[in-house]
Amino acid sequence: MSDDSKAPASGGIPTLEDWQHWTWVMGRAQQMLMEQWADSAAKDGAPAAWGAPGAFGFGGAPGAAGPGYPTGVAAPATDPMALMAAGAQAWAQGLETWGRMIGIDPSAKAETRDRRFAAPEWHDNPLYDTIRKTYLALADKLLGQVEEIDGLDEPARQKLRFATRSFVDAMSPSNFALTNPEVMKRTIETRGENLLKGLANMLDDVAAGQLSQTKAGAFEVGRNLATTPGKVIHETPLYQLIQYTPTTDEVLATPVVVFPPWINRFYILDLTPEKSFVKWCVDQGISLFMVSWKSADESIADVGLDDYVLKGQVDAIDTIRGLLDVPSVHSIGYCVAGTTLAATLAYLHAHKQQDKVKSATFFTAQVDFSEAGDLKLFLGDETMGLLTQLTQDKGFLDGRYMAATFNLLRGRDLIWSYVVNNYLLGQEPAPFDLLHWNSDTTNLPAGWHRNYLETLYRGNKLAEQGGISVAGTPIDLKTVTTPTYIQAGREDHIAPPQSVWKVMDHFAGEKRFVLAGSGHIAGVVNPPAAGKYQYWVNETPCGTLDDFVKGATEQKGSWWPDWLAWLKQQDPKTVKASGARVPGKGKLKAIEDAPGRYVKER
Question: What is the reported pTM?
Answer without folding.
Answer: 0.80
